[in-house]
């Protein structure tokens, strides 16, 4: 069930209604049932996988907490890491690394909930969080539907206490949650989906790409991926807020970053934090001299690239960002806004290319003809779309700067106009027949 | 505030009438979307100014 589907439009109000009328003590039950229903709507068999991951991490955390001997605790942690990362490897990376060609369906959201369960077991091992005894609360922590398939990757001490509390959302939570959801839908349906079809046309046939279209598609993809993923995160944050749960903010105006390091503090914050706390710091972080710091940064970013998928483009994209970050550490501290933005967008070009040979082909195509009208027409950018895209970007700029605000007639009307835009853009998507899945669902 | 609320309600009603009329006369969704986004931008600017 996609957030931008008719199914979700029916599912969410029903869940919200039931959730509001159930006593706090039992609120976890409808949430757990609806989360499993949400996940099973993609493929009913996936339930066995998430249930298995939940059971293994739940039992091993209890075992770790119970064990007094350090050796036993470490052995249990190692077994959990092998089981979780092994499952992830089989479903996501086996064909890529072993060169096999088994027909394996990638379970949706596997990278997200695997990392979430790992953070829980590691926190219990480090005695930073007590093991959860209630299986229902823990199962909900792993499967909470707003953030199940594409994050934010939550920490146990942020989410589990809220699930136990079973807070009823206040009217203010309902209002602001709804507004955040509307903003997320606007980013996804009005901007990302409209831009996406043009980007796909260029990247799906690299040999036919024309010089200008490569540049334009790269810029548009940078906008698309931001609107797609931050839009998803806002829908997740907003829907959770309407259910009385506060999720971690995943984006903080990343394209206004003044350096590459600043960008990574603003982009996919929950994943960056995960890699920092569970990989970079345990590797030694910046505590063992410059050389070790450089190696640690490169390892973390390469693995962060690999996390996105089993493709050389992701690994090189990760390594590329690591190298940029290392170089930046040797530069004087200044505002590098424009160069950083250009380098980040070049990174998106690698990220979006179907393969490295395709990326090289497209790069060589930049130096061919620059027939702007032909490029625009080949990308399906009709006159109305050429007007809609810049206008939507102005709206995006204003939306991103919209803070928590009062409940006045103008703000209410803004929301209704955004909803009207979403509805119209949704029909455009239905007309073109595109599936318009969120990009990060594939990871 | 009351006057502002009335204006905003009228604006919403007008927008719905505009969209339905546009569809009736065979305008494409994309063409209809343009003025709706324009009004959204104007309202976002007004909302921002009102907060300042």
Radius of gyration of chain A: 22 Å
How large, in whole angstroms, is the Cα Rg of chain B?
13 Å
The share of residues in extended strands of chain A comes to under 5%
Largest sheet of chain B: none
Query: Could you tell me the mean pLDDT of chain B?
Result: 84
Tally of separate helices of chain B: 2
Tell me the distance between the termini of chain A.
16 Å
The total beta strand count of chain B reads 0
Structure overview:
The complex is a heterodimer of chains A (443) and B (52). Chain A has 443 residues and is mostly helical. Chain A has two domains: 6-167, no CATH class; 172-258 and 335-442, no CATH class. Helices cover 71% and strands 0% of the residues of chain A. Chain A has 19 helices and no strands. Chain A has helices at residues 6-21, 28-40, 46-66, 70-98, 110-125, 135-143, 145-148, 156-165, 171-203, 211-242, 260-266, 269-280, 289-307, 312-329, 337-352, 356-365, 372-378, 383-400, 409-432. In chain A, α3 (46-66) runs parallel beside α5. The radius of gyration of chain A is 22 Å and the shape is globular. Chain B is flat. Chain B has 52 residues and is mainly α. The mean pLDDT of chain B is 84. Chain B has one domain (2-51). Chain B has two helices and no strands. The A-B interface holds A 190, 382, 384-385, 387-388, 391-392, 394-395, 398-399, 401-403, 405-406, 408-414, 416-418, 420-421, 424-425, 427-428, 431 and B 1, 4-5, 7-8, 11-12, 15-16, 19, 28-34, 36-41, 43-48, 50-51.
């Amino acid at each position: 069930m996609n957030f931008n589907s008719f199914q979700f439009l029916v599912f969410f109000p029903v869940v919200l209604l039931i959730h509001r009328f159930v006593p706090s003590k039992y609120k976890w039950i409808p949430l757990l049932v609806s989360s499993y229903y949400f996940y099973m709507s993609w493929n009913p068999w996936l339930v066995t996988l998430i249930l298995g991951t939940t059971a293994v991490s739940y039992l091993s955390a209890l075992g770790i907490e119970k064990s007094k001997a350090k050796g036993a605790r470490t052995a249990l942690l190692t077994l959990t890491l092998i089981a979780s990362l092994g499952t992830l490897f089989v479903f996501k990376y086996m064909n890529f690394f072993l060169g096999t060609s088994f027909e394996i369906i990638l379970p949706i959201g596997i990278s997200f909930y695997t990392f979430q369960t790992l953070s829980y077991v590691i926190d219990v091992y480090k005695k930073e969080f007590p093991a959860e005894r209630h299986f229902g609360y823990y199962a909900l922590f792993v499967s909470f539907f707003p953030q199940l398939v594409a994050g934010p990757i939550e920490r146990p001490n942020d989410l589990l206490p809220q699930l136990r509390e079973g807070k009823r959302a206040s009217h203010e939570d309902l209002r602001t949650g709804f507004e955040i959801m509307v903003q997320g839908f606007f980013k996804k349906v009005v901007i990302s989906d409209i831009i996406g079809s043009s980007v796909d046309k260029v990247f799906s046939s690299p040999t036919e790409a024309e010089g200008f279209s490569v540049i334009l598609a790269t810029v548009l993809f940078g906008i698309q991926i931001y609107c797609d993923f931050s839009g998803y995160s806002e829908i997740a944050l907003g829907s959770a807020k309407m259910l009385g749960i506060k999720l971690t903010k995943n984006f903080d105006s990343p394209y206004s970053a003044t350096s590459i390091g600043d960008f990574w503090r603003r982009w996919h914050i929950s994943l960056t934090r995960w890699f920092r706390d569970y990989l970079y710091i345990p590797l030694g972080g910046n505590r063992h001299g410059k050389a070790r710091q450089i190696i640690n940064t490169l390892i973390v970013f390469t693995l962060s690239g690999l996390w996105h998928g089993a493709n050389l483009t992701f690994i090189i994209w990760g390594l590329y960002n690591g190298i940029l970050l290392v170089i930046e550490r040797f530069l004087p501290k200044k505002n590098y806004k424009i160069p950083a933005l250009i380098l980040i967008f070049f990174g998106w070009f690698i990220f979006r290319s179907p393969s490295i040979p395709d990326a090289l082909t497209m790069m060589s195509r930049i130096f061919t003809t620059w027939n702007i009208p032909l490029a625009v027409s080949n990308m399906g950018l009709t006159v109305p779309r050429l007007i809609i895209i810049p206008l939507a970007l102005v709206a995006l700029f204003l939306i991103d700067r919209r803070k928590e605000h009062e409940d006045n007639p103008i703000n209410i009307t803004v929301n209704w106009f955004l909803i009207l835009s979403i509805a119209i853009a949704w029909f455009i998507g239905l007309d073109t027949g595109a599936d318009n899945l969120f990009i990060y669902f594939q990871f | 505030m009351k006057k502002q609320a009335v204006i905003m309600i009228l604006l919403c009603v007008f927008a719905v009438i505009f969209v339905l009329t546009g569809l009736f006369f065979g305008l494409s969704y994309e063409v209809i979307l343009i003025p709706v986004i324009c009004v959204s931008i104007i309202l976002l600017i007004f909302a921002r100014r009102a907060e300042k």
